[in-house]
Design a protein that fits this description.
heterotrimer; A alpha+beta (536); B mainly alpha (354); C mainly alpha (318); B: 354 residues; mainly alpha; MetI-like fold; 13 helices; 77% helix; globular; C: 318 residues
Chain lengths: 536, 354, 318
């Protein structure tokens, strides 16, 4: 190795220490610099894992989305503060690990019958609520029934529509009986609504008290302002290094940023992408940039003119310059979309589908074919959809001009966007949270009869494949089906998907994190409180 | 550097001596105190501080020179009566008029002046200033200078119409209430109370969510929100006048309400109203900026100074001046309007001494 | 003094009427907003069945007038109902926050009002001097910037570059008064900058407006020193518009500070109200709006009484 290589390796190791480089990047950089893979691997261990997880301290965590009207009801969780709080003071049956695999939480193990229509979960016998009582199968059944039944007001009701019955078998076994096969059910258990709460005697759950079986218990709190928690000593999982956790709702981007810079908080759940690069220059701050399955979509109603013509839909898909959008709206913190709602961060991602590029000329000829030259459409959006949503629509309108398409950007009020615009206006901009598997995503928003079929897309073959893939336990066959579905959505569907956004969040330099950060939510899958630690 | 410092002090000393010789006391005092300040600044801050002072003085001098020339220009083209008034205008008022004139020209001829369209994406995000883009590019790569020019048309136009609307509604109601008194006064007072007692941002949020966000709805809603402030002030000022003996006399003469308002009350209550106009004008700016904070402002990609500040506000923490440019545009206009207002206030107060 | 008392009572009566009108307006405005509490709470998770289930539970299917009258019946007996979203009594939900808001408003007012009036008198005295111009330009600049922007700049200089004050004004119950004042200094200062200019300019304008009056001329010819002319002769007659503007700004300090609360993460009532509107949580919107309305009415009443006391002519309307 030359001196230059040594310098390079030293700098890479430095970067690894600060958490600026992922393990995969680290390995490829180091081997490129002339190291052997084994050498690189051990260097990674000494630089990134120099300090082992240490217990102690109060973790102050600024979270970017909270509302005074939040409640502990798992059926109406909607803000990030509540979702992260739920991952901190309550438990789920399963959880998504840092490396993207599925791991145990309350459930020790799970298995299905061969048609995947009946699932059995074994509950960890050590799990206990903060009140001291053991978590039993009864609590799990009651917690799921909270989201089922005619009078349930849960937002997760649709996710359990194919669950016929949930029964407790003794204190530590729960059976889910489904109307059809669903190979993804254990993944579904990680949905943020399905937090386990203590059951009341009448089969309802006690969500009001805020009791849970998670790593931390709530000492005091005020919705939309802050929560103070302390460690639950009898927690069944590993981690929970901090003694206390303070979760602060910091809705204003500047407030979050200054709080992190001045050390008023130890971590924030979102960093304004505009200032991401500037923040990275601060040696006391680590900025994490994690690809996720969250996406920005632009659904068009496939049953409404002019979008009822597939050529018009494809012309609109060709008229957006995704690279410029990612560069200017996300400042690079995004993965390019290809008009099917299946992200590289999800399992079964088909990697051989050609990327759709910006091609105004082809768009023009498609429009000519459809007899829709000089097309004019309205695109509804609002600032609250995502950071830069309105800017993105404006940029898209500029791109589409080259294809002879006029896009009128209509800024709708932030307030009530998802009740008044989404699913009501024929062409709008939507932000989707990360879902664990393609099946969950497609079933929610692309299935013919889904309540959220935001593009009104009806494709027989797609719907047929969706049901087949769901019950298929053979992974390679399943992957093949998802590939075909992706092609259908890409070439026939009514949704423009410009990109999958990365999660960009930050922490002070003295916060230690695992090598891999979960891609399910910001702040390490919303579990920063139980997975991170202080290094000093 | 040394040459600069030497030249700097030499220029100031020579200027002081000349002014002392020709006996311009006011000017001499100013230049000489600047010299004394410069000695201290030079010792503490070095040549850098002197450069800042030089730039500051140069900007002030340019502004003063332009104002002086503009005043002369106005006197030349105005009708004799008006010209006489204009001659008495202080330099600050002339400066104010010049800025307003510039903004008006920029607003009216925006498409001709702006080198690029307000929505045109011409470069990378946050590109630095160059010959093509005087102030650089914004977050989408649009020319900030062009957007400022268009903003003069969109924001100032909107704010002006809304403020005029608020004044028309508020002052009319206030004057009528003062003159008529009785139940009408009480009724208008209660209506104003009702509107004012709902916080303006919430009121606007409710109204615009219900009525939609077209430009005219924004103008009307903003005018309605601000008219009670004008109403209360007018009512208070006019209330003081209505109890005067000369109004009593006019009433006994049998003059109608309109006569009282036009001939007796209005002329005696213009001063506080004019002062209020200058301020309300910038409050309207801010309300519109606040509305765009809630996603209810002008439709994109229309350039609007308030939203331009908001979009990049977080950058200020890193010393980036992008959000300061539109903020400065708003501040410069408000300050200028109020300079002119001050002068008019001074004239209408009847004070002769300067 | 009796007629003044009568007037106050009369105005209080009208105040109650205003509150009633406000409550009706707010109720129907919230009704007219697209979407209802069920859709707002469920957000992206709303399906027709869940929305219907929630509407049934909250009794939203009954006619609007019936629901309003029910609420009104409770409100006149002091029961403002429970939040439609959290099920918590409204008083608990917003009580503490209103106290926080009052504290911040009082903090800012104690600094801003004397400062603004004093500054107004000084610039009226030194009118058209360099000092007048500079004070003018500075105060005008401070109110021409959006308040969240002023907040950002203060944070940058007084918190990030010079760590004098905390950037976040979050409160905890065990703080001493000194700590509290230190923690909330930046939001208070932002508010001071926002309201000072208005009050100062009105003081100046009202005084200058009187300077040409014959009695001032008289005083001046008698050889009364300029500051005495202003403080003893002009100021007493200028109080009416000044008090009015002060009342307006005090009311603003209580009701208009949503953006400052957001920027400094201060748990005041403004943020609670905006949140409640977005959730269509009618009982909370209504209670907060009525608190604001009552604040306005009382301050306005105080302003009118102040104007009458300072101008005895108003006491006997002819």
């Amino acid at each position: 190795m030359t001196k230059k290589d040594n310098d390079l390796i030293r700098r890479i190791a430095e970067g690894a220490k600060k958490g600026q480089i992922s393990r995969r990047d680290f390995m490829s950089y180091s081997t490129a610099a002339g190291m052997t893979a084994a050498g690189a691997s051990s260097l990674w261990a000494t630089s990134a894992h120099a300090q082992d997880a240490k217990r102690g301290g109060t973790f102050r965590w600024g979270i970017h989305d909270g509302n005074t009207g939040d409640t502990h009801d798992p059926g109406t969780y909607v803000t990030r503060t509540m979702i992260f709080l739920a991952h901190t003071h309550r438990s789920y049956l399963t959880m998504i690990n840092g490396d993207g695999s599925l791991g145990p939480d309350l459930a020790d193990s799970w298995e299905a019958n061969e048609t995947a229509s009946e699932w059995t979960f074994a509950i960890n016998p050590n799990a206990s609520f903060h009140s001291g009582r053991k978590v039993t199968a009864n609590d799990v059944v009651a917690s799921f029934n909270h989201h089922r039944g005619d009078d349930s007001t849960s937002a997760a009701k649709a996710l359990l529509s194919d669950v016929e019955d949930i029964v407790a078998d003794g204190d530590t076994t729960v059976k889910f009986i489904l109307t059809g096969g669903n190979a993804d059910l254990p993944w579904l258990m990680t949905d943020y609504h399905f937090a386990i709460c203590p059951a009341n005697d009448d089969g309802t759950i006690d969500w009001q008290s805020g009791d849970g079986s998670g790593p931390y218990k709530i000492d005091s709190g005020e919705f939309g302002v802050q929560f103070s928690l302390s460690r639950h000593e009898g927690w069944h999982g590993e981690g929970a290094y901090f003694d206390k956790v303070e979760m602060l709702t910091l809705n204003d981007p500047n407030a979050r940023q200054t709080a992190l810079v001045t050390g008023d908080v130890d971590a924030v759940s979102q960093v304004d992408v505009k200032t991401m690069a500037l923040l990275q220059r601060d040696p006391n701050i680590q900025v994490f940039n994690v690809p996720s399955a969250g996406a920005i979509t632009l659904p068009m109603f496939c049953d409404t003119a002019p979008f009822d013509n597939v050529d018009v839909r494809n012309a609109l898909k060709l008229s957006i310059d995704r690279d410029e959008v990612i560069e200017k709206i996300m400042f690079g913190a995004a993965t390019k979309g290809n008009d099917f709602h299946h992200s590289p961060a999800q399992p079964y991602w088909p990697d051989d589908i050609p990327q759709r590029e910006y091609d105004p000329d082809q768009a023009k000829s498609l429009l000519k074919k459809a007899g829709a030259e000089g097309l004019t459409v309205n695109l509804s959006t609002a600032d609250s959809v995502s950071a830069g949503a309105v800017d993105m629509a404006v940029l898209y309108a500029e791109h589409a001009k080259a294809a002879g398409i006029t896009i009128n950007v209509v800024r709708e009020p932030n307030d009530g966007y998802y009740s008044d615009v989404w699913l009501k206006k024929p062409f709008c901009l939507v932000s989707w949270g990360a879902r664990p598997t393609p099946d969950v995503m497609y079933t929610l928003a692309y299935k013919a009869d889904a309540a959220w079929n935001e593009s009104h897309w009806q494709n027989e073959r797609f719907n047929e494949l969706l049901l087949q893939a769901k019950a298929e336990l053979d992974d390679s066959l399943r992957a093949e089906m998802y590939r075909e579905m992706a092609m259908l959505a890409r070439n026939d569907g009514g949704t423009v998907i410009p990109f999958f956004n990365n999660f960009v969040y930050g922490a002070r330099g003295n916060v230690g994190t695992p090598d891999n950060l979960a891609a399910s939510w910001e702040s390490d899958g919303g579990r920063a409180a139980s997975r991170w630690w202080f290094t000093d | 550097m040394a040459t600069f410092v030497f030249g700097y002090y030499a220029a100031l000393i020579i200027a002081s001596v000349i002014l002392a010789y020709v006996d311009y006391k006011k000017w001499f005092l100013m230049v000489f105190s600047l010299l004394l300040v410069s000695f201290v600044a030079g010792i503490v801050g070095g040549a850098g501080a002197l450069e800042v002072i030089t730039i500051f003085v140069a900007v002030l001098a340019t502004a003063a020179a332009v104002s002086y020339a503009f005043k002369f220009f106005l006197v030349l083209i105005a009708k004799p009566n008006l010209a006489k008034e204009l001659k008495t205008a202080p330099l600050t008022a002339a400066f104010g008029m010049f800025v307003i004139f510039t903004y008006a020209v920029a607003g009216i001829f925006a498409p001709l002046i702006a080198p690029h369209g307000q929505a045109e994406v011409i470069s990378g995000a946050f590109a630095p200033p160059d010959a093509n883009m005087l102030l650089g590019a914004d977050q989408l790569g649009r020319d900030i200078f062009s957007r400022i020019i268009y903003g003069a048309r969109n924001t100032v136009g909107l704010a002006l119409i809304a403020t005029l609307g608020a004044f028309f509604l508020g002052a009319l109601a206030g004057l009528l209430a003062a003159v008529k008194g009785g139940w009408f006064d009480q009724f208008m007072g209660r209506v104003a109370d009702v509107i004012m007692s709902i916080p303006s941002l919430i009121f606007a949020l409710l109204m615009l969510s219900i009525l939609g966000t077209s430009t005219w709805v924004i103008v009307v809603v903003v005018a309605v929100i601000y008219s009670p402030r004008v109403f209360r002030l007018t009512r208070a000022v006019a209330g003081n006048i209505v109890v005067m003996d000369y109004i009593e006399a006019a009433k006994l003469r049998g003059e109608g309400d309109w006569y009282l308002i036009r001939r007796e009350i209005l002329p005696n209550s213009t001063a506080p109203l004019i002062a209020e106009f200058g301020l309300e004008f910038c409050f309207v700016f801010l309300l519109i900026a606040g509305l765009s904070f809630l996603g209810l402002g002008l439709q994109p990609p229309t350039a609007d100074w308030g939203s331009m500040v908001r979009e990049n506000a977080t950058l200020i923490s890193f010393g980036d001046i992008t959000p300061l440019i539109p903020a400065a545009a708003i501040a410069l206009l408000t300050v200028s309007v109020n300079f002119v207002v001050d002068w008019m206030l001074f004239r209408s107060s009847g004070l002769k001494e300067q | 003094m009796n007629d003044l008392l009568l007037l106050v009572l009369k105005r209080l009566g009208f105040g109650l009427l205003t509150l009633l009108v406000v409550s009706i307006l707010i109720f129907f405005a919230v009704e007219l907003l697209p979407g209802d509490v069920a859709e707002a709470v469920l957000g992206q998770g709303a399906t027709p069945e869940t929305v219907q289930a929630m509407r049934d539970q909250l009794g939203l299917d009954r006619p609007a007038v019936v629901r309003y009258l029910e609420w009104l019946g409770g409100a006149v007996t002091g029961d403002f109902g429970v939040s439609a979203v959290s099920g918590e009594p409204v008083i608990n939900a917003i009580g503490d926050r209103f106290v926080n808001t009052l504290f911040l408003a009082a903090y800012a007012a104690v600094i801003a009002v004397p400062f603004a009036i004093l500054l107004g008198i000084v610039v009226a005295l030194l009118r058209n001097s360099v000092f007048d111009r500079v004070a003018n330009v500075l105060t005008l600049t401070s109110i021409s910037s959006p308040e969240f922007f002023l907040g950002y700049i203060l944070i940058l200089y007084l918190s990030v570059k010079l760590p004098l004050f905390p950037a976040i004004a979050s409160l905890s119950s065990d703080m001493s008064l000194g700590e509290l004042l230190h923690r909330t200094f930046l939001p208070a200062l932002t508010l001071v900058l926002v309201v000072t200019a208005h009050m100062m300019r009105m003081t100046r304008a009202a005084i200058i407006n009187l300077l040409a009056s014959p009695y001032i001329e008289m005083a001046r010819l008698k050889g009364v020193p300029p500051w005495k002319v202003i403080v003893r002769h002009a100021l007493p007659n200028a109080w009416a518009p000044i008090i009015n503007v002060v009342a307006l700004n005090l009311a603003y300090l209580i009701t208009g500070v949503v953006l400052v609360e957001v920027v400094f993460v201060y748990p005041g009532i403004g943020q609670a109200l905006v949140d409640a509107v977005s959730k269509r949580d009618f009982p909370v919107v209504q209670a907060s709006s009525l608190i604001f309305a009552a604040t306005f009415i009382l301050l306005n009443l105080a302003a009118d009484v102040g104007a009458i006391i300072t101008n005895p002519r108003l006491r006997h309307p002819k």
